[in-house]
Amino acid sequence: MKVPSVLMEYFASDVRVLARFARHWQTGETVPRDDLRRLLDSRRAFGASEVQQQVFYSLVDQAYHGSYPAADGQTTLSLANDLQLRYHSLPPVPGTAWQLRFGHFVGYGARYYSYLISRAVAAGLWHRCFRDDPFCRAAGEKYRTSLLMHGGQVAPGQLVEAALGQTPTTAMLVQAVVDDIQ
Q1: H helices present in the chain, as ranges
Q2: Which pLDDT score, from 0 to 100, does residue 1 have?
Q3: Phi and psi of 82, rounded to 5°?
């Protein structure tokens, strides 16, 4: 699960956190907060498109490793193009075969969707625990003791439930991503 690294992106995208260490390398002068806000706002400009792309990659990964109804002679390209025409707002680019260079389809073996789940869990943790105060020691300790310190000894679902304080549902995870985009 990639929750820790995705959660760290929230800290690295928070003006209050960046203001503590974002300094000029020679003078030590802090970066003006307005500049930091503009930079961070520009990084969020296409959040919905990014989520759509991750959903699309997940669908393609599931189709490649599942029992998607493939027609005789269907290739990885035609399958990806079919899914893109059905589920993406942008059409495929003719003459390209991007999926051949997308190594996650091999290494993840039908688990690419875990990126979306990790994003949803991290969004839920950020909004519930750290959004109001990213430096809250109590929230950090709870995160450490409920999720991080167990390593592989506890099932991921149990860790997520302990960290979020409730059993995650599909609706809750989807809402966390939607809230994050907004």
Answers
A1: 3-12, 15-21, 33-43, 47-65, 76-87, 104-107, 114-125, 137-143, 156-164, 170-181
A2: 59
A3: -60, -45
pLDDT band at 93 (very low <50, low <70, confident <90, very high): very high
pLDDT per residue as tens digits for the range 128-178 = 999 999 999 999 999 999 999 998 899 988 998 998 888 888 898 888 888
Residue 141, both tokens = 């300790």
Torsion sign, CA atoms 30, 32, 35, 37: positive
pLDDT tens profile 18-27? 888 888 889 9
The C-alpha atoms of residue 172 and residue 120 are separated, in whole angstroms, by 8
Where are the domains positioned within the chain? 1-66+103-182
CA distance 122 to 6: 6
Structure tokens at 103: 């190594």
Task: Give this prediction's pTM.
Answer: 0.81
Pick 1-66+103-182's CATH classification: 1.10.10.10, 2.60.120.10, 3.90.226.10, 1.10.1370.10. 1.10.1370.10
Which of 90, 69, 112 has the alpha carbon at shortest distance from 78? 69
